[in-house]
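G., the chain you wanted modeled:
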Amino acid sequence: MRSEREDVIFQALLLIYIPVACFFTAVSCQSDSSSSVVVAGYNLSAPAGSRMVLQCVSGRMVWTRDGVRDRQRVVHWDMYRAYPDYAMERVVDMFSAGDQRIYNSYNLGRVGLSPKAFKDGNFSLVIKDVTMNDRGLYSCNLHHLYCHLYETLRIQLNVTKSRRKEQRYWDGQKAVYVVLLGSTVVLPCINRRAVWTDWSEEEEDQQVVHWDRQSPGVRHDRADRLVDLYASGEQRSYGPLFLQRKMNISNQAFAEGDFSLTIWDLQPSDQGRYSCHLHHHYCGLHERREFQVTVEPPLIQTTELAKALPSEDKEFYPQASMRSSRSQSSSDEFEMDVTEVNACSREERRFDYKNNLLKEKVHVNTQPKVIDLDKEMQKFSK
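Predicted structure as tokens:
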């Protein structure tokens, strides 16, 4: 009597648990759609006039829509047998728009899923005419390959020959079903999240990335929108035209998963907190990355004054050697020590000094003579 009463209580709790769980799942999805989770924060600084790239990369937002949509969502039931060989075997699987596959011919017509599983979110496994061979640990596995979602539910199935021993309970880790031999059992696996049951015809509008900027002292809810980009290729820029031209993201963002924002000609007015928001409404992805940008004074480029050449009375003798600018593999390569170059320079200066003296002598000797006309007339009269 006591076991029957516990069974009734358990079934009532199970009926309450399923809709409550679905309710909280729906509420969590709605809350995610109105807000995003901060997954990273950065402090960046750069001089005025420079270019800055605020990196925002996510592989989960890559636009890889598969033409064969029924291969993206799949459910499969597996069973682990503790006796006799401790083996794992696939029982059944089904894609979102395909037929279910039964892996053991013994289960044909006896084990299966609802054909409407991906429409109503009920992936429960039905087993008719239960035998002792059906005992084991079952797992319901839901995979959404496009959204990178993987969920698993485990149920232990035991078989008894006594109707009095039928029961269902929670052992602290999993649900345990003890069912009567020859009866029909339904192993529940219910997930009514929209991601499992719907496929949006306008999925390109489900993916969007947008950048916001909060000026110093401005709250998050009053941030200025900079740019929106949808997976369809539509892009919207906000603010003055000069601001739109200096801040932008790549048109290939959804193909490469790189939603980084590039800012040209960084100015003090560009300081503030920037945020990159990634939303995939269909997959339930809502992430935010924040960047605190500080603009420093511009870099001042100074030019060094030309160094004066060493004076003649201070000879410079570096130890390094001077090589020709030819390739090292060239057979005409040669080396000349700097001391030899300095010696040649001194000889050239001496040679130039002698030439200057000769020029002065020639100039003196070739000066025209001044003639005294009276003296020349006296010589002529004599």
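The helical segments are 2-34, 117-120, 194-197, 241-246, 253-256, 338-365, 373-381.

Shout if anything looks off.
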